[in-house]
Amino acid sequence: MSNETARYSTDSSWAARADAEDPLRDFRSRFHLPPGRDGAAAVYFCGNSLGLQPKTTARFIAEELEDWARLGVEGHFHARHPWMPYHEFLAENTAAIVGAAAEEVVVMNTLTVNLHLMMVSFYRPTSARHKIIIEARAFPSDQYAVASQLRFHGYDPADAMVEIPIGEDGRFRTDTVLETIDRHRDTAALLLLGGVNYYNGQLFDIGTITAHARKAGVTVGIDCAHAAGNVPLQLHDWDVDFAAWCSYKYLNAGPGSTAGCFVHARHADDSTLPRFAGWWGHDRDSRFAMPPDFVPMRGAEGWQLSNQSILPLAALRASTDMFAEAGMDALRAKSLRLTGYLEFLLHAQSRDAWHVITPSDPAQRGCQLSLRIDRDGRALFDHLAANDVICDWREPDVIRVAPVPLYNSFADVARFAALFHAYFNDR
Fold first, then answer.
1. Class of the 61-324 domain?
2. What residues contact 304, with CB distance under 8 A and at least 6 apart?
3. Antiparallel, parallel or unpaired: β 369-373 and 354-356
4. CA-to-CA distance for 321 and 412, rounded, in angstroms?
5. From first to last of its 427 residues, what are the pLDDT tens digits of the chain?
6. Which architecture, in CATH terms, is 3-30+327-425?
7. What gap in Å lies between CA 258 and CA 241, rounded to an integer?
8. What is the spatial distance between Cα 213 and Cα 418, in angstroms, rounded to a whole number?
9. Would you kindly state where each structural domain of the chain is located, as residue ranges?
10. Distance from C-alpha of 191 to C-alpha of 373, rounded to nearest angstrom
11. Cβ-contact 109, 259 below 8 angstroms
């Protein structure tokens, strides 16, 4: 038993004490919590699908609507937060979340759009090296994007898309990832890896894997959809070539909100990289001169296509301001304790009918635990939903549970565990 586990208790008062001592406890009151059937807050463990709404979001958006009504087009320059440089207001906080310099990140588009734009620049296949390595059970949109890129370049995904195998325990081994890279080191052009696998919640050793891939001459892209805002990232120091993420999960920016993108600083001035160009990525000093030739801005901003959608950016700014206030280190510390408490309570009773496929090593996971239910998993999920627990069902047999440190409490965890075990005890 670890020292951390030894500090947990099944005593009903433990969660209340932990919440009272939680330095981040006040953030919970700054979110809209969905109500349960009795009017009290539901247990919301679905932030890995859609984060909750910060209470400041409405005000941030209302300010832009007011400035639009008051100023019209002049809002581009004279709004309280002028629209022309609006995306720049998010750069510093976004960079802190993903471990980058401000010039290495930009908020734009949606996740899969950004992945395609990145692959235009960084997937440069040759007859010798054209394979793309991706983990098995990657998020389907990533698989679709990779397959379509391969077909676009004239390759058959059945041959050119290499899947990193997953173990019978539902987890990936770092050694297996490295061995897959080695096996295809002479034919692979790109590794596109989920930072945290959406299905099993496993956090990959991105630094080790990236170093190994780049030594083999393989370009590295990371899909951080389930990692950004969930776990500390060091995209710059890990030497990742590019990354992309959405903002509606752990970043709480609202359904379908504006995504983000990272391009390593060593590519900032590389004019040899092909890209799909648009006017918002053009050099800002001459953008409105409307020149015929595209001159990209330095860094990640040079991959922008169109002027930004301000209302989603306002929602994202409301959330990233909160991340800056809390700090990723403090959020990670609470996340480790909160998820560890969930694991402790789940394991305190029989596991005959279920098991956790997320790694037990806290360094290999964020705040998500994926529970594989051996039989009647959907019935269990429906039981939880009927008792005001909002989590996530994934076919064929997995319930994903994500206690998010910004707004979930230790009492939430205790309530979930009690309902979970009650289902089996009553059968």
1. alpha beta
2. 87, 106, 108, 278, 280, 281, 297
3. antiparallel
4. 25
5. 345 555 899 998 999 999 999 999 999 999 999 999 988 899 999 999 999 999 999 999 999 999 999 999 999 999 999 999 999 999 999 999 999 999 999 999 999 999 999 999 999 999 999 999 999 999 999 999 999 999 999 999 999 999 999 999 999 999 999 999 999 999 999 999 999 999 999 999 999 999 999 999 999 999 999 999 999 999 999 999 999 999 999 999 999 999 999 999 999 999 889 999 999 999 999 999 999 999 999 999 999 999 999 999 999 999 999 999 999 999 999 999 999 999 999 999 877 899 999 999 999 999 999 999 998 899 999 999 999 999 999 999 999 999 999 999 999 999 999 999 999 887 7
6. Alpha-Beta Complex (3.90)
7. 21
8. 44
9. 3-30+327-425, 61-324
10. 32
11. yes
Which residue matches tokens 């208790």?
9
pTM here is: 0.96
Give the number of C-alpha atoms closer than 13 A to the C-alpha of residue 411, restricted to the C-beta side.
Answer: 13
C-alpha–C-alpha distance, residues 178 and 258, integer Å = 33
